[in-house]
């Protein structure tokens, strides 16, 4: 495919790369956008409001052997994009408009964009030289916080450029939306937040909610005032962290977190790693607090929530019922370990379950790739979705519930007038994309290309 001159998005990517190079950090800029005019290759750049994507592969239905789904039926289509939505979806070659710019997808599979709903864009080693985390054996969370207090001043000078580098990485994996936790601590003050907001301002096609995150403990680090200043800067969520293990006072810590949310009419997204009975008690206290403050209903996300993995039987059922009644959501990295999170049970109760990268590479973990297809793959492995149907359903965890086919095999996405936020993947169907973690060839936000291979 032929490429056009750099767009504003590419220019911003190059600007971010320049900032990294000036700071001594290596950075591979995303490739130029995929689209090339198939009839007039030297006409305007691809970032236009009205165009056609040709030879796009869409899922049409399931193939069955009796009642078993054994394959996915697909066909090629030409798709017209106008003002960020799907304006027309036609069989390939049936309704081409030579007056519009046309770009050939060459049979790549069209899937919904993915969302990274738990990531830390503000503090990362990504974009710099390789650096593995130090050994964790024998280290407590307080030891890790002490380590971070040393690292944060070293990361701050390049934190904006590194955040922009991760945004480029996420775009390359098909992600166009995120929720990022951002440190609010005595070491960085509000600087991490200021840098993150600058990074996001340079990437308006990457909508991102921000959680003010008291990584060093809301009470322990005495940042209530800074958290309130963060709310005044437009942050959407109040964060929290292990109220017993870090703050040493479960009720006081959670009360302080919820009070900020109530005072500023914001949502809550709390990290809860505790697997002891204190973790279970914290979840129950949150349920009770929401019940007493109905304005919080539907606005509280439990991130990680490993304590749920310690429950079973009636105790788990009652906890899930309480969470569902208060319309809590869960953000899980789909961890593999001794405890298995009861994600299907949560979803069966109507609880929204999201997933995210958490760490791309930092002093906590080196394993994040930024791929939500990888998270769908983990979901399929953990919850026995290795067949065609199960693999295709696992995609929902990455896309915020959007699936090309319904459970009955009817095409439900894309439809005319749907938002054209999407990715082109080198796969024959959703099941293959999830099982093989297939390469993303292009990513679009509201119809505009933000990445191509």
Automatic annotation (TrEMBL):
Signal peptide (from-to): 1-28
Domain of life: Bacteria
UniProt-listed Gene3D superfamilies: Metal-dependent hydrolases, Urease, subunit C, domain 1
Keywords noted in UniProt: Signal
Keyword Signal in annotation: yes
Protein name (record): Deaminase
Domain Amidohydrolase: 215-450
Species for this entry: Pantoea endophytica
